[in-house]
Amino acid sequence: MSARLPKGLATVAQVAGFDAVIDARSPGEFAEDHLPGAISCAVLSDEERARVGTLYKQVSPFDAKKVGAALVAKNIARHIEERFADKPKDWRPLVYCWRGGKRSGAFTHILREIGWDAHRLEGGYKAWRRHVLDELEVLPGRLRFRIVSGATGSGKSRVLEALAAQGAQVLHLEELAAHKGSVLGNLPGAPQPSQKMFESRLHAALSAFDPARPVFAEAESRRIGVLHLPDAMIAAIRAAPCLRIEATPAARVEFLLRDYDYFVADPAWLAEKLGHLRELQSRETIERWLTLVEAGDFRSLVAELLERHYDPLYQRSQSKNYADFSAAESFATDDLSPAGVVRLAAAILATPAA
């Protein structure tokens, strides 16, 4: 199929063969999602795009094209001067816009006129998005997952990081989602990506794995913060064998006090998050927890949160959603310090199931 494409066009399957991938869309479009490794070189800013669109609708397409062409030419010239003037003659960039039409077409034409072997992505970002969604329906089923489970505070994410450091293949869903997967899971100063961006990150991660080797992932619910896992992904991890961490309550409390140390520095943020539990806990319980926050007694607060909120939720969700949960091989520990987590990861890797 690619051989029959007109000169200067490329397909989604050929993206990896270029020296650079240039996103010609507006900064707002780029921020929502973009091809992996793409650089933003907007031919119209968000404001310019809105201005041209208004002219198109309220005045005429001809007037809009006149203004748009001047803006596009000016912006392309700036990008060439600021970002590409040092590129050699054999540089091969790929350019895309929303549908692979006018914006990327103008950029590609100018780059080719200069002498670079520039190509335009056929179908633009929409073609890439279709590719990602299609692949997310099949990629999870091609991999052998091993699911690291355990109650809240068992250090599952840190165990995954230790497994990766020891050479294992790891799918860190909470890292991709920029969220720790609970009501207190928002990361300060790190907003979650859009659903589209999350799916692009997930696609990139899954595509990089060797199907012949197991992939370790954490037991997750369907939602991670405001994001949701694709159906094929949640089905694959729920059908996979579990490896259950059985950490003592004291070890879990100590771990959470270290891993969530940022909420100690912002009691107001913590109090606001606890307010989200009002529909699940009694007014008296919430008020007691807020009193503990005000007193700075975070150790007692964490212990109560585990006992009264997180542990009951964990037992219900794991036994319901993971068929292998009751028969899962368990790993007991009373040490979730950094060194203890490394030992735990090594023990998991040493099991025949891994």
Describe what you observe in this structure.
With 354 residues, the chain is of the alpha/beta class. The chain has 2 domains: 2-134, Oxidized Rhodanese, domain 1 (3-Layer(aba) Sandwich); 141-349, Rossmann fold (3-Layer(aba) Sandwich). The protein is built from 15 helices and 12 strands. It has helices at 27-32, 46-58, 61-84, 102-114, 124-136, 156-165, 173-177, 195-207, 231-238, 249-259, 261-264, 267-274, 283-295, 298-321, 338-349, and strands spanning 9-10, 20-23, 39-40, 93-96, 119-121, 145-150, 169-171, 215-218, 223-224, 227-228, 242-247, 329-333. The protein is elongated. 34% of the residues are buried. The mean pLDDT is 92.
| Nearest-integer average pLDDT | 92
Please identify, by name, the CATH architecture of the largest domain: 3-Layer(aba) Sandwich
Terminus-to-terminus distance: 41 Å
H-E string: EEHEHHEHEHEHEHHEEEHEHHHHHEH
Which percent range describes the beta-strand content? 5-15%
Tell me the CATH topology of the largest domain: Rossmann fold
Q: By helix and strand content, what is the structural category? A: alpha/beta
- Indicate the overall shape: elongated
What is the element layout, followed by pairings?
Layout: E1 9-10, E2 20-23, H1 27-32, E3 39-40, H2 46-58, H3 61-84, E4 93-96, H4 102-114, E5 119-121, H5 124-136, E6 145-150, H6 156-165, E7 169-171, H7 173-177, H8 195-207, E8 215-218, E9 223-224, E10 227-228, H9 231-238, E11 242-247, H10 249-259, H11 261-264, H12 267-274, H13 283-295, H14 298-321, E12 329-333, H15 338-349
Parallel strand pairs: 1-5, 2-3, 2-4, 4-5, 6-8, 6-11, 7-8, 11-12
Antiparallel strand pairs: 9-10
Helix pairs in contact: 2-3, 5-8, 6-15, 10-14, 12-13, 13-14
